[in-house]
User: What shape does this take?
Amino acid sequence: MKKQSTIIFFTLQITTLIGICGIGYQTYTTEQSLKTTKSSLANTIAYMDELAENKRIQEEMSKPLMIGDKAPDFSLTTDSGQPVTLESYKEKPLLLVFTEAGCEYCEEFFPVLNDFLEQKSEIEVAVMQFNSTVEENKAYKEEQGIKATFLNATEQELLNYKVHNTLTAVLIDKEGDVANIGEVFELSDMLALTEALDPLVAIPVGEI
Assistant: This one.
C-alpha cells in the first residue's frame, strides 16, 4: 500500500511538472506570438504612415501656387556660404528661377539670365539650384560666369513652390506676395513675366 501511495505521489508530481512546463511553454509561445504581432503591426502602421505622407505630398503638389499668395519662406545658403531667408530679399522684388544640376536647358539659359540682370537691376534674382551643394554651386557659377546668386534648393522648396519643371520662375514683390509665375527660356519670357510689377502693363504669364 505504501509503495502504491509513493507511486501515486510521484505520478502526481510528474503530472504537475508536465502541466507547469506546458503552461510555461504556452506562455512563452504566446509572448513570442505577441512580439511577432506587435512587430508586424508596427511595420503596418509605418507603411500606412508612409502612404499617408505620400498622399499628402501629392495633394500639396496638385494645388497650384496662385498669384497673390504669400510666397513660402525658405532658409538656404548662397554660393558664398551666406545663410538667407525670403526676408533677406525684402528690399527689392525677387525673381526665383528653379534649376537643377546637370540640366542641359538650364546651362543654355544662364547667358539669358545674365542679359536679364543687365537690363533689370531693380530686380533681385536668385537661382534655386536643386540637387547641388553650396560648394558645387560656387564652382559652377564661377566656371560659367553666372552673375545671379545661387541657393542650394531642396525638395522642400520644390514642394512649397509647386515646381514641376526646371526653368520655372516665381516673381515675388517687396511685400512677399507672388506677383507672377511661369516658365522662362528666352529673355522675352523673363521680361514679360516681370511686367507684372507694373500694374499698367501687367499681363500674367500664367500659373504653374
